[in-house]
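Open question from group meeting: does this chain pack into something compact, or does most of it stay loose? Before anyone orders reagents, we agreed to write out a predicted structure and look at it together. Recording both the input and the output here so the notebook holds the full record.
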Amino acid sequence: MAHRGASRAERENTLAAFTRAAEMGADAVELDVRRTAENLLVVHHDPHVADGRAIVRTSRMQLPPEVPTLDEALDACRGMWVNVEIKNDESEPDFDPSDDIAVAVAHALLDRNEGDRFLVSSFRRQTIDRFRAASPAIATAWLTPGIAPDDIDSTLDALCAAGHRAVHPWFGLVTDRLVRAAHERGLMVNVWTCDDPAKMVELSGFGVDGICTNVPDVALTTLVRSA
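Structure tokens returned:
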């Protein structure tokens, strides 16, 4: 899974990065979605653009031209499935406690009539819960830095009970036990963000379903060799 596109080869979260990921043979792309001042969905990781302006306080026309709309980004990712991460952090200027952004993203994806192509994630559980309520047919995942060993069973049970289909932990804290426990419950495990070939091989041995990486070309070569 190409993290923000082929983000080592091109500027991250741009049409060029998504196109390059496809050219490298990536199966999937991860991208980040936020709202502009007029509530248009655009793709950008940070809440501010390079000159310091908050995206949520800036109109689409005033954003740098390389910042794509969500629709433009999804068009550039044709042929790959897409992990849409909804950015909704309490510490950032565009935080939405109502989680209405999740509904906006749900409507945008449903309008494309290709729901099987998407997996929607967020670090905020309430956000993916709200998305799932608005669009239960599109798969959802919870992003997390990691799950404490004593909390694995209860956390995964809660995700299953809420109808989510995947957990996305940081690669450095992924264990064989976590992957097995998730798979026993029918949950996918997609890890972020691993650029180390040796670690990719280890994670593949654990049976993870996806590896989010800034170097999809390296990942593909590494995993083919280790198969």
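Observations to bring back to the group:
Residues 2-226 form a domain with the TIM Barrel fold (CATH 3.20.20.190).
The helical segments are 15-24, 70-76, 100-110, 125-134, 152-161, 176-184, 197-206, 216-226.
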